[in-house]
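Example 9 (inverse folding). The structure is encoded as follows.
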């Protein structure tokens, strides 16, 4: 009798485990939605569409990018945080996810309602200045800025990563800057080229203006030289002690609702990893101006916590506010 009960118990456990595993093995069972809390056409949207196409091919299901811009990414992020945890709603977002935890006093969602799944790419910030600025490296720029207080730094908007990078640079070096926010990178770059503003932290895409002599690039926000621009000296290696650990970059990553079962999270991560580790995908990401940067779930979670610890004090001390 005892043996019979043990067999029945083991059979029940096996059936339960099989029932739980079945949805994971069959995932996805319907179209998958990737929410992007940015407007269509931006780099986050482009990256999401590249990922969506490859996942659709792998999963044999449509993977649809759903752009939900507004309120500094809050609208789209809130929608993802409140979605069912069945794996059919994903979020691809960027640096704003971290910054908003400090910038926005009453978020309509809890950041912990979203589980970091995978870092997808990184974008190191380059420090550009107008060609008329009499500085050719970081020490010369600092000396010039101290001799001419009120140097103007453009950004793509209040609370954006270029804004926060500029404030962090100013705080560490003790220079006095004037922040000039724009509605997007395009207008900011136009005015930098035209000389209406003097400096800007931006992506590698703006290097085209350096090649034509309209701008100068003085450094990059990476810790080590990078493959895309090996000749550029990292700002952290510029010889200025206060900048010895300075970094400036914008990450791009995928999240799922935290209610998503761990086994399903692992399944989705494995599929994302398989897609991202192909040469075809590396090349596609690289062409957007980003650097492929796949991280494990735990690695991405640790990275986000470190990023928040680094920039939260800057946001508070410099009294950075959203538009």
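The amino acid assigned to each position is listed next.
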């Amino acid at each position: 009798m005892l043996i019979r009960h043990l067999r029945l118990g083991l059979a029940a456990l096996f059936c339960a485990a099989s029932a739980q595993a079945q949805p994971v093995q069959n995932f996805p069972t319907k179209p998958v939605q990737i929410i992007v809390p940015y407007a269509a056409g931006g780099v986050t949207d482009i990256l999401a569409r590249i990922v969506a196409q490859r996942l659709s091919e792998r999963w044999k299901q449509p993977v649809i990018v759903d752009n939900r811009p507004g309120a500094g990414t809050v609208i789209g992020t809130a929608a993802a945080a409140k979605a069912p945890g069945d794996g059919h709603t994903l979020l691809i977002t960027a640096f704003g996810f971290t910054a908003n935890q400090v910038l926005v006093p009453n978020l309509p969602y809890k950041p912990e309602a979203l589980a970091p799944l995978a870092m997808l790419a990184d974008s190191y910030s380059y420090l550009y200045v107008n060609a008329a600025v009499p500085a050719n490296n970081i020490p010369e720029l600092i000396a010039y800025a101290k001799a001419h207080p009120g140097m103007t730094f453009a950004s793509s908007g209040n609370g954006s990563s270029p804004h926060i990078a500029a404030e962090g640079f100013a705080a560490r070096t003790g220079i006095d800057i004037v922040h000039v926010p724009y509605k997007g990178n395009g207008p900011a770059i136009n005015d930098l080229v035209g000389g209406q503003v003097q400096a800007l932290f931006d992506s590698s895409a703006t290097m085209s203006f350096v090649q034509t002599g309209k701008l100068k690039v003085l450094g990059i926000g990476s810790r080590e030289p990078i493959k895309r621009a090996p000749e550029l000296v990292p700002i952290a290696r510029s010889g200025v002690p206060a900048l010895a650990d300075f970094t400036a970059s914008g990450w791009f990553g995928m999240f799922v609702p935290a209610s998503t079962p761990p086994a399903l999270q692992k399944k989705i991560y494995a599929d994302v990893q398989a897609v991202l580790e192909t040469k075809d995908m590396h090349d596609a990401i690289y062409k957007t101006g980003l650097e492929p940067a796949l991280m494990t779930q735990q690695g991405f979670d640790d990275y986000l916590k470190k990023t928040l610890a680094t920039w939260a004090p800057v946001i508070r001390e410099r009294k950075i506010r959203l538009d």
